[in-house]
Amino acid sequence: MSSVSTNTYLIGFFEKNENRILEDWWENILIDATDTQKQVIKENGYLMYQLVKRTLTDTLRDDDLKQLAHKVAKERVEANINIGDFVHNVNYGRSLIIKQTFLSGIEIEQLQAVIDKINLKFDHFIFLAVKRYTFLKEEEIEEKNYFINQSHKDKLTLLGQMSSSFVHEFRNPLTSVIGFVKLLKTDYPNLKYIDIIDHELDQLKFRITQFLHTSKNEGAQEQRKEILKVHLLLEDIIQFLYPSIVDIDVDVTSNFKTDAQVSANKNEIKQVFLNILMNSIDAITKKEKPRKITVCSFTEGDEVIINISNNGPRIPDKTMNIIFEPFYTTKELGTGIGLFVCRKIIEKHSGSISCFSNDKITTFSTRLPLLEATENGATP
């Protein structure tokens, strides 16, 4: 039997068993319960069956195969169904066609050539469909990411505008009040409650500074760096927070690498560790005693690592990946910008910040480039 006669005979055999082939395929393929395009799947199966028959007569154009593959890929993306089910269904259809080919009775020496031709078209169809599906999915993800990023940018722009207004309304009178309080401390060093007032004003100034760091224009004005001894900076912050530490009876322990130093903007880096320590104090406020906070610094390679730990409640795993995102907060009156600003500052200083939390301890770990003492003879 010639190849033309073989193909004609095989097509006739397929058409004779068409209903049984299609019913078998439909009854055994994988269809997700949530798939909104079940009927379309059946129609596409029939279209692929027709293309297989055209393959045998060499009348199938690559564009026709590509058109169907792209149609299916688009529908699978729109249905939001895993592409694995599609691949399984196509291969099950392939196995039915191959099975019928074996049952057709065509001569053995011509069987392999026919099977190879069928397999080649099925492989090409799957390749085209999966490639298109992947492209559409990546495009969809990029659009979603763009929307999320744009939404964040819009919020940050609005927050920057709010910050500017906030600064003009509060910064000048706040500066005046802070100045007069310091004069009072000088003239009346034993004046009752003056240290508390001074401390609370510094806290207010710190909160305002958090908003300022969301404004690019304001941040651009604070680029001056200096050489900082890390342990002196951390000791200064702990001393600054001493009233809050005493107020809730927190046991603060420290262990510092005294020769570690960095090149950084002092006000910005101080804001980072001040914010983390204040968060640690907030986290253990409602905890039963003992309440513990540990602050340590050490060097590792060309980095200095600062770990601030507390024995407060565990941060849930689902929260861990978003605590550094803007506007996320677990505090009733929180703004959700504190840790976002911390990350922004540390990354600007070529460092990184991360968090680890379990039932016993929560640690915020900050890494900054280590400045060797021999690089510069001066220290702050």
From TrEMBL:
What SMART domains does the record point to?
HATPase_c (SM00387), HisKA (SM00388)
Q: What InterPro entries does this protein map onto?
A: HATPase_C_sf, HATPase_dom, His_kinase_dom, HisK_dim/P_dom, HisK_dim/P_sf, Histidine_kinase_N, Sig_transdc_His_kin-like_C
Task: Give a GO molecular function annotation for the protein.
Answer: ATP binding
- The Enzyme Commission number assigned here is 2.7.13.3
**Top-tier EC class:** transferase
Q: Which reaction does it catalyse?
A: ATP + protein L-histidine = ADP + protein N-phospho-L-histidine
For this protein, the record's Pfam families field holds: HATPase_c, HisK_N, HisKA
Gene3D superfamilies for the chain: 1.10.287.130, Histidine kinase N-terminal domain (1.10.490.70), Histidine kinase-like ATPase, C-terminal domain (3.30.565.10)
Give residue ranges for domain Histidine kinase: 165-372
Q: State the source organism's domain of life.
A: Bacteria
Keywords per UniProt: ATP-binding, Kinase, Nucleotide-binding, Phosphoprotein, Transferase, Two-component regulatory system
Q: What is this protein called?
A: histidine kinase
